[in-house]
Design goal:
The complex is a heterodimer of chains A (565) and B (244). With 565 residues, chain A is mostly helical. Chain A is built from 20 helices and 2 strands. Classes of the chains: A mainly alpha (565), B alpha/beta (244).
Amino acid sequence: MKFHSPQFERGLKRLVKSTIRRSPGLKHEHRRAKRYRRNLNLTWLWRLALSCLLGFTVWTVQMQTGHLATALAGVGIYLLAGLCFQTQSLWAKLYGSLDLPALTILPVEKANIFHWQLQKFLRGSIFLLVDLLVMLGILAWLNDFSIWKWGAMVLFAGVAWFNVLALAAYSVWRLPRWAFQTLAGGLVVLGLVLFFGRTSIAPLALHLLDGCAPELNLFMPTAWPVAPFELLAQSQHWWLLFLWLPVFLIFGNVKLCLHRILDGFIYREVEVPPAMDLVPGEDTVTESSGEPPKQRGPTEVEDIVSSGSFLVRPGYPLRRLPEQWLWQWLNGREHSLAEFVHPSGLAIGAAWKKLFIVVAATTLLVLLAGRVGSVTQFATLGLGAFVVFCMALANIVNHGRAFTPMWCGGVTVPLYAGYGIGFKELAGFFFKYALVQLPFLVVAFLVLGGVSAWCLGMPISLGVVFGIKVAFLMFASRFILVAFAFSSGTNDSSRFHISSVLLMAFVVVFGIAFLGLGAASLFVPMPAASFMLLGASILDAWLLFWIYGWFYRFCRFDLMALPRQ
Amino acid sequence: MNIELRGVTKSYRSIHALDHVSLLAEPGQIISLLGPNGAGKTTLIRCLAGIARADKGGVYYDEQEFHRDRMDLRRRLHLLPDFPHLFWDQSILRNISIILHLFDADGDGTKERVLALLQDFDLLPLALRPVQSLSRGQAYKAALVAMIAADRELWLLDEPFASGMDPHGIDAFKRHARTAAKRGRTIIYSTQILDVAERFSDRVCLIHQGEVRAYDTLTRLREQAADKDNVLEEMFRQLRESGQ
């Protein structure tokens, strides 16, 4: 489906180009305009590299375990991450696309807008199919498939791909409030941890995966289409074919899902509720109270201005102890920054309360799962630890609205950049914000480490130390993540310039060193050496932040970025 | 196209953005919407474009009631908001191509017209660049080129003179709008610049607190005014005084 006529556009382009060519003045201007540095679009190259890496991973899994089912479970887990990404992508295309405002004011039926956005979503999901073709192709090659089995492999890839898309549509319809982005981010972090810990953590994870692969293939909806792939490699488990039954049920549901989404895909007029007057020093009455909005007369407003009461700082909500500790620690300038970054108040205590509930639930479930079997116990522990890790990361890396991109004149500028806020002071506030949370982080991972050690039959003290190290590594990652957050609002990596290349080289080297040193600190058996490595990784993270700060201070890039869809 | 608003009322909860607005506009006129900030000018434009739905009353085009789903009527009007809504990752040419195609206006002779407009608005060397790389004024000019090329019966523009366009662009817009009005197109735009409104409109519609306070030709408004040279300024002054 196209909203333009390619024939018309081709003709127009030809006409424009020939006119430009005929006029030296226009030619000169056209050349000057072309000098504009375009945002480098190397996404497809990265994606192809990722497909190859996935193929290599699947190959490694099959070679090391010798079980096709384990490799297929790995594919299923990858598709689970893919499902999170695709759901997020479909949601963004349907409700957050930059094209929607333009299409809203043009004479287009909503069904056409919907199908256009859907088409863009499908185009964006093609790489998922490429990943599947590469992964299943590698497995087909390892298992010496005949020609017709290679054909079947393509069919499997297609069915698995469509299954993910169908599940994404279902998720957008039925589970729109799920944090798919956080889940996807967590799975990416997990993938990175496994990649960089391929000699330490990965074998353990592989062992775990090998143990529970058949169960995973049975219970993961994303694994259902690929699980019967085993049959092509002379497996006797014919019952696996039954897994395609729910897959076909999902396919049969696609049309209904799309209809339901389309029903809700209507243009909604934005109605800004009338704002009530916010009188300094008075509590605001919320809308839910049902009271009509209070409006003050000009005399009263005049009184407020002339008395200077509007200059008096309103009380900043500090609900729990951690927020109060942080507030006492911050200086005057940082108080202003806190109000700027978190205008509705700090919420450290509540977030950690939630996290400790998850830690407690995980501990309890792990104890109960131990009665079912070790595989179930490990799976519960893994899932719980993963959720806790994601939640802790979200608590530590809370940037509020500091880096919210603001659209202005064809570029986006991070919010903080418009308010005379410096790199060092904002970063300093974020570090203090993270440091206040360090005791909670340590306690959470100390408990998880202890539970993990108990499950693995290792000394509890070893697990506790492991947990503490993980907590400190997470805290150290704050240095790197602050640098990345500042980077997100700049053009530091989107142009060819010596300073950009240098910066990227530094970031890559120090980033890899942090991951390497961090992984080593966790698994080196000698305590003294492991703590030295931990210190080195923290220092490395700080150095990365410091180097980024140097580039920032010396204005090596602009505080603006070209917007991306 | 005959445009008629019959008692259009639009409220945002307790705030009346438009209060029983009734207007009649004949084809071939340039109408400027004037009024203080928050008077309801943009809401009126949105109601005319079908973006906002009137709570009471209705908008009628050639005696036919207009609402958002009337695609046949929507194809006869074109809205250009104060910040142009475009396909930001696409080139100027693709944007124009999409807009013309959606208005069924990419027939014979359009290419030449688009070329002439691109030249007129100094956009030709930038025609292949993605819109997101343009300045606000350039992006607005790109949207304006599409609007002029599509040449609908009703042009609705929100604050075109505060769009970041350079003087040459503003001049080109005025020229094309005048020619279009002579061809029978109706151009309704909002502005805060009284000098522009005085020179570049056949009719003036003064809105205050959602109500139409004056709607007449400039000649007739001048006849009624004490200060004949600054008729709009005087009207605004009176409006402020009556409000206080």
